[in-house]
Amino acid sequence: MRSVDEHLAEILATVRTLAPLELELERSLGTTLAEDVMTPVELPPFDNSAMDGYAVRSEDVRRAAPGSPVTLPVVDDVAAGDGALYAVGPGHAVRIMTGAPMPAGADAVVPVEWTDGGKTAVAITRSAPAGHAIRRAGEDVPKGEVVLRAGMPIGAAQLGILAGVGRRRALVRPRPRVVVLSTGAELVEPGSMLGAGQIWDSNSFTLTAAVREAGAEGFRAGVVPDDAAVFLDQLDAQLVRADAVITSGGVSMGAYEPVKEALGPLGTVRFQRVAMQPGMPQGFGVVGDDEVPIFALPGNPVSSFVSFILFVRPALRKMQGLPPEIATVRATTATALRSPPGKRSYLRATLSRGPDGASVVSPVRGQGSHQLAALAAADALVVVPEDVTDLPEGAAVEVIPL
Ligand SMILES: Nc1nc2c(c(=O)[nH]1)N[C@H]1C(S)=C(S)[C@@H](COP(=O)(O)OP(=O)(O)OC[C@H]3O[C@@H](n4cnc5c(N)ncnc54)[C@H](O)[C@@H]3O)O[C@H]1N2
Ligand code: MOO
């Protein structure tokens, strides 16, 4: 049996980071930036007011105080977006709004709250030092500075700064397109009636959702019966839109294992036993002229999900140009744990804080590979190493938050 680490290493050595392409900003959310982005102008591009109020020469309001206001004539009104402006001469004020350009001559903004709000003349009851409530040109970013580096995942704030420096498009690593196929003669679509021996297909929903949670595009291609030829036809039809394929079921030792039967003879997909629990039977390789990576995951619902977290998600991250590491935290066990010898096990658990603030992890009831309800109640996987079979309460463990 090969180790979890060997299997992951082979996967990461096989999958390639997707080629960058130019995308409109509206389509780049969730992609990874593939270029350094500079601002072509300084930001803000001009000195502007940080407050609604009056642009003045600070010298003119130096003596303003609640008991003895300074009154100045208001010679102009500037709103955000205004272009041609009057200069503020000595003894004058200009009414100004937040974001409006500072008129020449003025060196301070008096907030409207410190005045009587006058439109033709304004009585000012507090002094404002030079520079007060002015946002200087280039204060956010100087001209030519890099605002985002290649490799940065694009979220809402990153999209914002791309637009803020005037970009309409960006060079990005796209979201991988991942097709999910379930196999199994017993599977029927949720929403339809169950016949004898049938169950509702849940894996294709779980895995497609997990793909989307991992930042890729998931396409649920539905259920394929236990027939290798039909499976190959379906796979062929889906390959045109796939950067990766995930299948579930049909990889173990049974008499009807369509995925293994169909892919085994191609010679580009290997089926192996990985020393882990759950998720021991695993297939991985490439298919089609474009050598699309395919993950043939075991059919048991918990096994396919755990396999996704351990193998598929890091691969999708590599394809997106992101570090493939699996994030883990340290916690102590709330109860004693058992684990099979020679296998790394991933126990479904809930993570919480103990009285001292440290993380505590409690396994959920129902650790069978078919026990999907227990998985749904968990928010973490406790990693128990291959050489450990018993852990006492209070032992320090590595945990993968879900
Ligand atoms: N003789 C042996 N039998 C099994 C072994 C073994 O080593 N020797 N390994 C066991 C382990 S471990 C696993 S995991 C499973 C993997 O089996 P397959 O990948 O071939 O999956 P299936 O047989 O198709 O299904 C297993 C189980 O999961 C249910 N299933 C399948 N697909 C779905 C789906 N889309 N939604 C919900 N549930 C699904 C299926 O009905 C079966 O109950 O093999 C063990 N056997
Ligand atoms: O490895 Mo299977 O995934 O134990 O149930």
TrEMBL record:
Positions of the MoaB/Mog domain: 179-318
Root EC class: transferase
EC identifiers of the protein: 2.10.1.1
Names of required cofactors: Mg(2+)
GO molecular function: metal ion binding; molybdopterin molybdotransferase activity
Xref: Pfam families: MoCF_biosynth, MoeA_C, MoeA_N
This protein's pathway: Cofactor biosynthesis; molybdopterin biosynthesis
Catalytic activity: adenylyl-molybdopterin + molybdate = Mo-molybdopterin + AMP + H(+)
UniProt entry keywords in alphabetical sequence: Magnesium, Metal-binding, Molybdenum, Molybdenum cofactor biosynthesis, Transferase
Keyword check for Transferase: yes
Biological processes, Gene Ontology terms: Mo-molybdopterin cofactor biosynthetic process
Domain of life: Bacteria
Gene3D superfamilies reported for this sequence: MoaB/Mog-like domain (3.40.980.10), MoeA, C-terminal, domain IV (2.40.340.10), Molybdopterin biosynthesis moea protein, domain 2 (3.90.105.10), Molybdopterin biosynthesis moea protein, domain 3 (2.170.190.11)
SUPFAM superfamilies reported for this sequence: MoeA C-terminal domain-like (SSF63867), MoeA N-terminal region -like (SSF63882), Molybdenum cofactor biosynthesis proteins (SSF53218)
A GO cellular component entry from the record: cytosol
Summary of the function given for this chain in its UniProt record: Catalyzes the insertion of molybdate into adenylated molybdopterin with the concomitant release of AMP.
Family: Belongs to the MoeA family.
Name of the protein in its database record: Molybdopterin molybdenumtransferase
Source species: Spongiactinospora rosea
